[in-house]
Structures are given as C-alpha cells and as structure tokens.
UniProtKB/TrEMBL annotation:
Lineage of source species: Bacteria, Candidatus Uhriibacteriota
Chain positions recorded as L-histidine binding sites: 109-111, 140, 154, 158, 284, 288-289
Keyword annotations from UniProtKB, A to Z: Aminoacyl-tRNA synthetase, ATP-binding, Cytoplasm, Ligase, Nucleotide-binding, Protein biosynthesis
Gene3D superfamilies: Anticodon-binding domain, Bira Bifunctional Protein, Domain 2
GO molecular function: ATP binding; histidine-tRNA ligase activity
Gene name per UniProt: hisS
Protein name: Histidine--tRNA ligase
PROSITE patterns: AA_TRNA_LIGASE_II
HAMAP family reported for this sequence: His_tRNA_synth
GO cellular component: cytoplasm
Primary location class: cytoplasm
C-alpha cells in the first residue's frame, strides 16, 4: 500500500490573560499516612501483580482453595490462640471497642481465623486435610523499620486435618518454590519444638539454665524469662548469643514421635531439593505452634543469608481443640509469606519486572472534536482486544508521539480536525515513520493488518 506523508497542524494555543494577584492562601496542613502504613503506587503495582499472581498460581497447583476472611474479629479469638503472653497480643494489636462495646481487633495474623472458620463451617466433615490459602492485610502495632510495617500483606497456606509430616514438607515446599520462581535464592531455617508436654518440661530446664545468668540479661530478656522463656532463644539482645550457645536444646528433648516425624519432614525436603538448615534456636513467637517450625530467609549474590524472614510457619496441632473444635481434626500445618518482604528482596536483588502492558496502538488526537471521536475509537479497539493507550489529557502532537515512542507502541493513530471533517484517520508506523490515511470506519481492520505485518 502506498504510504503518503501527511502533516498535521497543531491547534493554535490561545494566550492566557494575566492572572490577578491572589490573596495570600491560608496554610493548610497536608494529610499523610499513619506511621507504618503505606500507599502502593502504580509503578510498584507490577511487583505486586507478579508476586500475587505467582502465589495464586502455586496455591492452585498444589490444591489450596482461596478463603476471604474478615479483617476484624473478636479480640478474644487472638487472645485464645496466639496467646496472651505473646508480643502480638500484649503490645501489637489494633484493638478497640465497637459501637456495641464489643472488643474487636484488626487481625494481626490469619491462622487463628482459619481455625475459627474451620470449626464454624464444620469443615471436619470435608475430606481431610482441608487446604486453604488467603492473601490479605494484617495489622500489627510493631516498631516500623525497613521491611516492618503496621499494615502488611501475607499470602498464607493452611492444611488442617492431618498430622502427616509430608504435609509439613509440602507447605514449606510451596513457599520455597514461590520465591525461587520469582528469582530469589532462599534458605529454610527449620526446627522442631515438640509437643506441649515436651515444651513444658524443656521450658523449665531452660528457665533454670538462664536464671544462673539473670544479672547478664537485658531488661527485655529478664521479662522474657518470666513471661515467655522460649523467646530467649530467638532474642537478639546484647550478650545473649554466648549464653544461648550452651543452653539446653529442644531437639535433645523431643519425644520419639516428634523426633521421627521431624526426620521425615527433613527427608521429604531432601527429596524435592529444598535447601534447609537446622536452627535449634528457632521457636517463633506464637503460642499455638508445636513440632515443626520454620522460617525462610533470602540469600544474596555473595551467598550471605538475610537476617529478616520472608516467611514463617509451622504446625499447630492443638489449636483446633483448644478453640473448642473436634479433636479428630488430627493436626494442622501453616505458613505465611510476607508480600512486601518478598518484593523488597526482589528489588534488592535487582530482579526486573515488566513495567507495563505491551501497547500495540497509541491514539493521538488534536482538537476537541477529535478527542470526542477518539473516545469511541478507543472503545472499538478495546472491544477487539487490542491493547491501546491514549493521552486525552495532552494537547500537543509532539508530546503524544513522544509518549507513543516511550510506550513502544507499534502504530499510532492520529486524528486531527481535518481528519474528523474528512472522516479519516492517519495510521503511523512507529518504526518506519511511514503514514497512511484510512477511512475511519475501516481503521480497526486496517490497523490490525498493520499490526500483523
Ligand atoms: P508471622 O505471622 O509473624 O509468622 O510472619 C510471617 C511473615 O510475615 C514474616 O516472615 C514476614 O515476611 C511477614 N511479616 C510479619 N510481620 C511483618 C511486618 N510487621 N511487616 C511486614 N511483614 C511482616
């Protein structure tokens, strides 16, 4: 087809009348987000889409069904499950009395909710284990710092109704695959904290060990010694490292069943080549955990392990009965992956994500009539599934063509006042710069042809 060069004249820009001097504006206080809360703007959205798409895809692949849970629950749910003496319940919950004076809490985590939902909806009658996943916001009044927010997103996996160690391995595997497939190198830190009985005995031994060194403990660790002694093991306070080295280890105290189950979990992980290392000090901060507990950290280009966990989880075999559910449920295993932390790790590693949809067609207009027609043309292209971009807010052709270039559009449609009168549109091939004038009613068909050439 012959290609004609066409020149489109820009609309005359009318000169603006001089603005009158305005009275001095009152200083208005600009609103901002709460500390620890953040907006996710369109440019970062590409990371979010990639991570959440991956989470959804893996959940489907491994047969976890999506649940959408409320953001608000009765405060007592978390007190009874996460535990009254834990940091989360003691210091970090956004709790308030609602209009009926009921104590409610913005969820700090979702495992307790899943357990509630399992019981409330009689899921014991479904084939076990019931495998579910969620993606959503959690709220913790934590001290904000890099990678720690007061509102953050988690992708969580839960498998309720089985105490088979293979379930532990599968949940860990899914989290690891998600991160690997997003381009991260990761390491699983894993431990077993045994059953409640074992833990009770072990905790007493731990307390008597640390009591000898009470004077060497920080104020915070002294508090932990009385309130939640297991937390001494993952304390990062000054001086604790040396003391921990000689502390009794829970792995040496495990009962035969816990030990055998833990060995099986490790064997399953070996089988699917999940990188892990034992961490005898990993206990995690929530009361409901038993047996397997784990965290996942990133490994950087130099092979160094990160200190911030990307995911964490473990078994919670007694949570369902503890909340009044039927005990035949037979154990449960879960994990939560921090979405912001995975995104931060991807950025840190320089993993690129495609920044925008690939644009096929750019629509450029000059003048009000062209703009109006443009709205309808845009609709036609969209209905055909052709990815079309526009800049209705821009007036100058130069600026619009620059934008088309930036978006790497294959063709640009140009509609000026003359074309509106003639009932035509210009199709410009962005690579060659060649242009042709086509009848407006044929623009979709001919543009499609140009795109396929
Ligand atoms: P947890 O629910 O404490 O077991 O945490 C599971 C995962 O959620 C962690 O490994 C983090 O990736 C993420 N996470 C927990 N707390 C925060 C927070 N305050 N800000 C951002 N991510 C968090």
């Amino acid at each position: 087809m012959a290609v004609k060069k066409v020149v489109v004249e820009e609309e005359e820009v009318k000169s603006k009348p001089k603005a009158k001097a305005k009275p001095k504006a009152k200083k208005v206080k600009v609103p901002n987000t709460l500390r620890g809360f953040r907006d996710v703007l369109p440019d970062e959205q590409f990371y979010w889409d990639m991570v959440i798409d991956k989470a959804r895809q893996l959940s489907d692949d491994y047969s976890f069904g999506r649940v959408r849970l409320p953001l608000l629950e009765k405060t007592s749910l978390f007190e009874r499950s996460v535990g009254k003496g834990t940091d989360i319940v003691e210091k970090e919950m956004f709790s308030f009395a609602d209009q009926s004076n009921d104590r409610v809490t913005l969820r700090p985590e979702a495992t307790a909710q899943i357990a509630r939902a399992y019981i409330e909806h009689g899921m014991l009658n479904m084939p076990q284990p019931v495998k579910m996943y969620y993606i959503g916001q959690m709220f913790r009044y934590d001290r904000p710092q890099a990678g720690r927010y007061r509102q953050f997103w988690q992708w969580g996996l839960e498998a309720i109704g089985s105490d088979e160690p293979i379930i532990d391995a599968q949940v860990i595997l899914v989290c690891v695959r998600m991160m690997q497939e997003l381009g991260l190198d990761v390491m699983v830190k894993i431990n077993s904290i045994g059953t409640e009985d074992i833990r009770r005995g072990y905790t007493m031994e731990l307390v008597s060990y640390f009591k000898q060194f009470r004077s060497k403990l920080s104020e915070l660790d002294k508090k932990r010694l009385t309130k939640n002694p297991l937390r001494l093991l993952d304390s990062k306070e000054e001086g604790i490292e040396e003391l921990k080295a000689d502390a009794p280890q829970i792995l040496d105290h495990l009962d035969e069943k816990s030990k055998a189950d833990f060995m099986k979990v490790l064997e399953y992980l070996d089988e699917v080549e999940v990188p892990y290392e034992l961490d005898p000090f990993l206990v995690r901060g929530l009361d409901y955990y038993s047996k397997t507990v784990f965290e996942i950290v990133a490994i950087d280009k130099e092979g160094k392990q990160g200190t911030i966990s990307l995911a964490g989880g473990g078994r919670y075999d007694s949570l369902i009965p503890q909340l009044g559910g039927r005990s035949e449920a037979g154990g449960a295993m879960g994990a939560a992956v921090g979405i912001e932390r995975v995104i931060n790790a991807m950025k840190h590693k320089g993993i690129d994500v495609p920044k925008r949809r690939k644009v096929d067609v750019f629509f450029a207009q000059l003048g009000e009539a062209a703009r109006r027609k443009g709205l309808a043309i845009f609709e036609k292209f969209r209905a055909e599934g052709i990815v079309t971009a526009e800049a209705f807010g821009k007036g100058s052709l130069k600026a619009q063509l620059e934008m088309a270039d930036k978006l790497e559009a294959k063709i640009t449609l140009i509609l000026g006042q003359k074309e509106v009168l003639d009932g035509t549109v210009i199709i410009r091939d962005m690579e060659s710069g060649g242009q042709e004038i086509v009848p407006i009613e044929k623009v979709v068909e001919l543009a499609k042809r140009s795109l396929n050439n």
